[in-house]
Amino acid sequence: MLLNASDVLEIGGGAVLAAGAATAGLMYASVWPSSRLFGRALTAPRLYVNGPDEMAFTFDDGPNPKWTPPLLELLAKHNVRATFFLIGQYAAAQRTLVRETLAAGHLIGNHTWTHPNLARTSPDKTRDELKRTSAELEQIIGAPVRYFRPPFGLRRPATFRIARELGLIPVTWTVIGNDWLAESAQEITDRVTRLTAKDQQRGYATNLVLHDGSHRTPEADRSRTVASMKDLLEIYAPSRRFVTLDEWES
Fold first, then answer.
1. Is the pTM of this model over 0.85?
2. In the annotation, is 115 catalytic?
3. Catalytic residue (one of 106, 111, 115, 211)
């Protein structure tokens, strides 16, 4: 889940105004998905000339015992594979659902144990969050976990270094649906299609973030997200090739 304006101000907006351009640059590096100042992350590749436009559906903050299952059913109906970044403590409580997600052909990623703001988290705490989550997920699925998305997309200089030391590839995004804020499925769909069109105009594939869960509660209402996914699959199925993130690893 990305921070809204009030959250950004809480984290450091006042400091940005007070400290000037240097601090503003550090804020940009800690928040903006494509910033490389604190290290490189997997976002999305350029589109192939005369090739199919590609799109990766990714879901954060699960597993959600109420809304992940209908999402899995919907993806299966369209024969689409996605990437799920799981909160470790939720995964530990929903092991069967995690295994079902993997068995359906989806990629499992690390989204930390408790979903902290890693721009404020000490290196030792960051390492513990990532290491504990990977260990839990790997015990559940019986396979290595290779991808990590920082909660809110936030990081500090050590975050990606620690992730890579643990064998994790940092991932951000190109489009975020703001589905946790949306008042309707149509609002999500409209935002996603508008921003995806911008990716295409720039010549890039789309790495889309939606949410099947919430860091605030393991059973958050994600009915609007699932409803929007029905529309998005119908909109993009004729023209897009849907991929999991491992297909973009360079």
1. yes
2. no
3. 211
